[in-house]
């Protein structure tokens, strides 16, 4: 019997804690006996790349636990993410199991919890409808109109400019710039942007909590942060004449005034889009700092920031694991998959599959060989690709221009229990001194 995620709002602290601890305990025990997916999901004391190598080869899809399947190979991963029979909901059992998980459940928990059954649960048909709705507002050509404004969101941030002053890449630069960029893109009322900035950090586990139980405190904070951002969206949608002429107003017009789909798209952008953009920007900077020749290439030619971000999507993606549920009995790679089984794609492993990518463990911006990244093949987040790429690219481009001699001031510190996103909590960096680009705080906006 498949167990689905629960809505933490419906449970007391004691019941929610029991659910989270039980799932955590089961993942921990399964990891101790060598179950590879459990080792990855418990997110402790394992080198994922070493583990990924053991999962490649034949069979390309492996059963790692009761009614749970996993692949680390690119070709089947791409096929699985494109298969409409694999869904975000178990249709046979309704939209959610409403009982906490217990050791006597007789099944593996599928999704641990979720805070939204709409914005976070899109399937292929939902994705197609959203793509049509957002075509003129969040597609590639649409968001390109906001490139200069997005760059300005990062250019306008105050950074320490004293000799060898340190700052936190995430909290001082990437996240506040992302907040300003996304708020401007959607056209949130100016008075709500500060509140959005305050709420966003609490939503860090929004994707990770699907497959890995957060702590009780993090789970409650996630609900508070998500609901707070939802309230900001609802307030904006309740008074559309007062909205700036941003994507939110345009989406309302495209939807004929129907607020439900617009609300889902806005929440997906403001919460998940922000999580992916900040993760991608931080990972790109980390990769560039670890490869000084590539950092210098971006410094000399700022347009190369786009290639660096594109390669990071493959090399260190902002989504590492995607779990989908078989909506019907099916056969995948010659193996019988029962309805309700969990099929898990290890995106980061598949994107380093030597069968799909030459020299997969090298960071090579501008590479022309190899398959397309799989991150946005997940229909739940597919429409976010143009926005996430734009924000991350401008963050990297502006940072390199403003701090061309940036160096790490310590190792990036990651949150606990974030196997899906690898979310950074702190990223200390140090500037080697002032340059002409930073003396007046100005960086030329892209044309």
TrEMBL record:
SUPFAM superfamilies recorded: Cytochrome P450
A Pfam family assignment: p450
Coiled-coil residue spans: none
InterPro entries: Cyt_P450, Cyt_P450_B, Cyt_P450_sf, P450-rel_GT_act
Gene3D superfamilies to which the protein is assigned, alphabetical: Cytochrome P450 (1.10.630.10)
Family to which this protein belongs: Belongs to the cytochrome P450 family.
Protein name in UniProt: P450-derived glycosyltransferase activator
Organism listed in the record: Streptomyces lancefieldiae
Highest classification ranks of the organism: Bacteria, Bacillati, Actinomycetota, Actinomycetes, Kitasatosporales
């Amino acid at each position: 019997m498949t167990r689905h995620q629960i809505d933490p709002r419906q449970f007391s602290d004691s019941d929610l804690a029991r659910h989270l601890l039980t799932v955590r305990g089961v993942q921990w025990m399964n990891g101790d006996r060598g179950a590879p997916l459990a080792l990855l999901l418990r997110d402790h004391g394992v080198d994922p790349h070493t583990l990924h190598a053991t999962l490649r080869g034949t069979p390309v899809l492996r059963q790692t636990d009761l009614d749970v399947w996993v692949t680390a190979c690119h070709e089947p991963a791409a096929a699985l993410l494109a298969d409409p029979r694999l869904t975000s909901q178990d249709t046979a059992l309704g939209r959610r199991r409403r009982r906490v998980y217990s050791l006597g459940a007789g099944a593996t928990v599928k999704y641990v919890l979720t805070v939204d059954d709409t914005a976070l649960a899109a399937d292929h048909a939902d994705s197609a409808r959203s793509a049509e709705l957002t075509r003129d507002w969040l597609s590639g050509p649409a968001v390109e109109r906001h490139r200069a404004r997005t760059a300005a969101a990062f250019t306008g941030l105050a950074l320490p400019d004293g000799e060898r002053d340190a700052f936190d890449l995430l909290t001082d630069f990437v996240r506040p710039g992302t907040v300003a960029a996304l708020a401007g893109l959607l056209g949130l009322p100016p008075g709500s942007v500060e509140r959005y900035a305050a709420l966003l950090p609490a939503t860090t586990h929004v994707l990770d909590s699907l497959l890995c139980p957060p702590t009780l405190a993090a789970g409650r904070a996630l609900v508070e942060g998500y609901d707070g951002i939802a309230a900001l969206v609802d307030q904006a949608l309740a008074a559309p004449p007062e909205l700036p002429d941003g994507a939110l107003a345009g989406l309302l017009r495209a939807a004929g005034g129907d607020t439900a789909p617009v609300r889902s798209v806005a929440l997906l952008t403001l919460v998940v889009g922000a999580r992916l953009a900040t993760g991608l920007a931080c990972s790109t900077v980390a990769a560039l700092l670890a490869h000084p020749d590539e950092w210098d290439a971006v410094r000399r030619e700022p347009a190369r920031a786009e290639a660096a971000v594109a390669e990071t999507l493959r090399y260190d993606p902002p989504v590492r694991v995607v779990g989908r549920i078989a909506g019907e009995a099916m056969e995948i790679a010659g193996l019988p998959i029962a309805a309700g089984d969990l099929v898990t794609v290890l995106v980061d492993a598949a994107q380093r599959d030597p069968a799909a990518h030459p020299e997969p463990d090298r960071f090579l911006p501008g590479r022309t060989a190899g398959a397309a990244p799989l991150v946005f093949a997940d229909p739940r987040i597919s429409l976010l690709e143009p926005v996430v790429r734009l924000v991350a690219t401008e963050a990297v481009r502006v940072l390199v221009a403003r701090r061309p001699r940036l160096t790490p001031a310590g190792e990036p510190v990651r949150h606990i229990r974030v196997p899906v996103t690898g979310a950074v909590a702190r990223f200390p960096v140090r500037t080697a001194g002032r340059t002409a680009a930073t003396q007046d705080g100005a960086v030329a906006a892209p044309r």
